[in-house]
């Protein structure tokens, strides 16, 4: 929230308003590009950016992170719009927002910090790969196949079309040029980098297309009010569909996780007040509830915009609120400007954003130091590509739980022979069903013609499955003429 004391300081106001302009210039092409990639009117991306700036910006939680449509939800939104229709998107987003509000008031925010980082990285990597596969087709102004595997299989045909079709080659050149500008821009002098890279890339591609007389595909723009379609009772009735409920849960959980992980990252970038996770979750929920009521895209806190906000020197929430005001003014006064941007250029921005979601540099060190975590990341990402976002994330979470259970169920078995031939078998650690095969294999190698004592006093945990299995082994192990195995607990 913005305090009156902060607004009375002209230095703070001037600095934050300048920062808001930077964030606005970063957010503008991303809002439009994400909307187009999600299969919805371009204006709806701006609506979400406006709500994320003005509404969420005024709510408590995090002062400096900026909310809006996120590349991380592009795949899920596209699937939802394709399967249920654009009219049902609003109720889905609204229901997800209300769920976020409930989770925030129930103090669930802090529990999102317990999600395996490898699963989150795998989720983002999988999303990034799906975005890249889809937007490569959009860069060539070509229709994309329905599934990620079909997109992957169709890449040779796409390459052939780009080489043989002049229009496809022209569009792909604009998209590739956009990616090249995004890669080169950070290496240019500081005075040039005052203009944000996404805006520069889109501006240059648009200028080249206009000056060269090219006619690439552009977004169909009808104005902000025309794009807003308030959902009706029939659309809300679709929430009774089990598949729609699953999508609502996916929206709420993934948007919440992405927002709160973004908050953790932004908190490391500044020395100001830390984020209150529960309040931030409520703020995100309120924003999504309003976006859903307007039929717009879902929102999350976005690391790219948030980092730009911090790096531009913002210290209060004024910058993120003002960036929403600039988006509103642009959408109201200059909507036609969106209609001249080549879709191939917007696709190039999404290809670049998708590549940045994949942790290429981190995977090697992770594989060398924590191989299990690297496998978890890779499996989650590939599962998302092969199946879908929701199923891939669920599989990743299940694997993380199994991995954690396996690693914490360490158990050691040692034997020593006492005078008189008695064998003492000692178990220490955590004995769970996951370790039963190894435990029983070692116990069954013990001699059956000697007295055996099974010492369990060193176990920190003994689950029911292990206890029953050990008791059964003790009853049947020794020969009838040898005294039964004794168990000491």
UniProtKB/TrEMBL annotation:
GO cellular-component term (any): membrane
Record's keyword terms, sorted: Membrane, Transmembrane, Transmembrane helix
Secretion signal span: none
Segments passing through the bilayer: 17-37, 84-106, 118-138, 168-185, 197-218, 238-261, 281-304, 324-353, 374-402
One Pfam match: Sulfate_transp
Keyword Transmembrane helix appears in the UniProt entry: yes
Domain of life where this protein originates: Bacteria
Domain SLC26A/SulP transporter: 14-380
Membrane topology category: Multi-pass membrane protein
Transmembrane listed as a keyword: yes
Gene Ontology biological process terms, A to Z: transmembrane transport
Locations listed in the record: Membrane
PANTHER family on file: SULFATE TRANSPORTER
Protein name from the UniProt record: Sulfate transporter
Organism field: Streptomyces nanshensis
